[in-house]
Amino acid sequence: MSTRARIVAINGSERDGNTADVLRHAARVAAGRQAELEVVDLRNIRMTRCGPCGDCNDRPVPCAVQDDVPAVVEKMVAADGIIYAAPVHGFGTAGLMQTFIERSGVGYLRFDRPLSNKVAGVIAVARRYSAGEVWAQLTVNALLNRMILVGSGFPAQVHALHRGDAWKDEEGLTNVARMVERMIDMIHMIKEYRALTGRQEILAVTERNERVGLALDELRERV
């Protein structure tokens, strides 16, 4: 088992702008701890919006849409930690991140919750307003997937408008750095626990799917 921490950061911005700069800062912090932080820019992958099929709540197998979303999910499953990072657009989460949450969550993650016990961090980037709302939405998504959310004191929210403004928000970048440091600490603690005990499940996952009325074993038998 590798002792090096591996983190995948999902960048939900449509541009190579402030959110990307914040994640570059996060990557430098991780590198200083001999940790690997890989950024997945959703703007650069093939990602189809949820379609009209409407059978997500009943299908016992992953989404049938062919694009790059399952490959990104595989990267997340292989990592020790996940960062969701998105800018505020129209007082809400940027559209790319919203699409990814829908496609990955309903199409792949809900069956067995493969991100259970991954260490999670959340970053929101905003000019001034709604950073808290976007941060809260991404946080709830991390908790839904049974990840272990690591705090940074003040939330990792960076205020920026024009390209390059993120570098001017010293307090926001400090909170991002603190979050990344704590994520790496938690990842190492989990690795040490697993090495000492031989247990892979650090927290009980007794029921892999909590959706009421969705008996996956029975549904799979029908396929």
From TrEMBL:
UniProt domain NADPH-dependent FMN reductase-like: residue ranges: 6-154
Any single Pfam family the record assigns to this protein: FMN_red
Keyword Transcription attributed: no
Keywords noted in UniProt: Flavoprotein, FMN
MF terms in GO: oxidoreductase activity
Protein name, per record: 2-amino-4-deoxychorismate dehydrogenase
Source organism (scientific name): Planomonospora sphaerica
